[in-house]
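Chain and backbone:
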Amino acid sequence: MSSVFGLFKRVYAAFISPPRPFNVEDNTASPPLKIGILGAAAIAPPALVLPAKSHSEVELYAVAARDISRAESFAKKHGFKKWYGGKDGYQELLDDPAIDIVYNPLPNGLHYEWTMKALAAGKHVLLEKPSSNTAEETRRMFSLADQKGLVLLEAFHYRFHPAVQRVRAIIDSGELGAIKEVNATLAFPKGLIGNDDIRMNYNLGGGAMMDCGCYPLSCVRYLTSKNPSAVISATATPYPRDPRIDTGTTANLTFASSNPDGEPVKSTIKCDFAIPLRLGFIPRWPEISVRAVCERGSVELFNFVMPVIYHSITVTPDSDVPRTEKAYTFEGDKGEGWSTYRYQLEAFVDKIKGRTPRTWMSPEDSIANMEWIEKIYEESGLGSRPQSTYVLPTA
């Protein structure tokens, strides 16, 4: 019963009424950072709106959508003060001098254009993943952010949660020895993503490897502390309506061993928009896990993407009894319930305020993840998603 109560308590705190920060004094010396959102996307409420409501240093200020009535409805529902709409709505939001932070959850193919415009307007940017359609676009965005002294963060929210941090700590401790193999999967049951979903639109940067595949790739890179050395093979399941789109991809990678004379580390990452139904009509559970096999045992994290709901860390030493751990909070925190998104927002604001975040996602990390997404697509035969035609005007 206690585990069921804990589940409801965490879900309530993460997605209904997030708690206030722990061990952080309210900063009354300066006004809160005002947030503007590009697009009234479905991901915005859990990813930023709810987390922002529990952070004393930010304010939900404005939202823009192509349909102004949609923007108005979203703003009134979630407590924004202003809204913009129509063909110039996005730019009008960027031109608002009161806005400090822009959240960009637009389709992948629009990430580059509107992030470059936001940075040019002097805004810090929280950018949904994957960062863009190509590594070159990602490189240019971070270069502009650096030139203008702004914070740009790719929103790999799972990275900021105690669960994956605990797994990384177990690996780095040497308890299990060097990694020999690491595999990760993020797959959804068939029927969850419809044919009209933007993730099935090639021109908008669609495809499973872009959407859910970026997570397992990021995770295996993070746990190995390396970039792959090669894509050994990659197989994509083409979308019947547009074979340029993958509904699922499996890639076999290698990483250099941490031991000078060691064998390369093997890795298989899988992503899927449509896990087949059981018996033709029973939906399957999503597959969300990462497992590292090491010299002296293994460690597996179930639900590395959304661990606040539920997760388990299974450590299996070769010479000892297995154990299961949970990590809903960092050591020293007084409670649990922060979502991955809330931890991410904490780090983002810390960075803007000149404080040192507990965890961070570097520009080099984001660029590398996009580089290897492109290499996997190349090996699968589908190729990269189309690069944006937007060109930032020169002064």
About this structure: The mean pLDDT is 93.
